[in-house]
Amino acid sequence: MILYFSGTENSKYLAEKLGELLDDDALDLFTYIKAGKEGNFNSTKPFVLVAPTYSWRLPRFLEDFLLKCKFSGSADIYVLMNYGDSFGNAESYLKKDFEKLGLNFNGLYGIKMPENYLLLFNLDSDQTNKKIVEEANLELEKVTSIIKSGENFPKTKVSLAGRLQSSLVNSLFYKFIVKDKKFYASGKCIECGLCSKVCVLNNISCENGRPKWLGSCTHCCACISKCPTGAIEYGEKTIGKDRYLLSKLLKN
Fold this sequence. Notes:
Elements: E1 2-4, H1 10-22, E2 26-28, H2 30-35, E3 40-43, E4 47-52, H3 60-66, E5 70-73, E6 76-83, H4 90-100, E7 104-112, H5 126-149, H6 160-177, E8 183-185, H7 194-197, E9 204-207, E10 210-213, H8 222-226, E11 232-234, H9 246-251
Helix pairs in contact: 1-5
């Protein structure tokens, strides 16, 4: 069973492609987390978690969710994380989490995907991003071969910088950067309410038809990327920028 969370479709793409290659089901964890429902997952095949990298680690809300889940059938779990830069020392934290759940952690495999964090960074060109996706497809074939063989993912040597990124920098990132005070809806807002529906943490309410952020954002970028009119902005950082959704990129 392949479990995934995706804000802008990078992880969704990898999970569904991997499901095809492994002839396995890909299950979106969004509905579980949004509804506050604990997962009770059973699989005869190894579990595979596909997730984005937030500040060189698994997203904290996703980690919290997983630690409340129950897993039965297979006791093995692989983790596939997509990143724009690297995944730092995420593996050591994942290992501890899955030990708590009584699962055999079979390693972490990182795959580079297009940069999507437009709250801080600029997006690359469509041409560059399509090449990145092509290379990711080749990496998925390697991932598939390893999982089918029953072997662990190769362990990656972590530098001192990587350890600091996943510990100190991660803590500072959540303390000072992951805030929602800069979000607002421009005059392009058509009051459709989609931003509230795609918010995994139920952090957006609609007052008189317009979105209001409630202080529990995780910066998944789902609201800003999926708004049909591009009405949502993040301070001045996103003004004039294209929004990123992988399905949009692949259609061009």
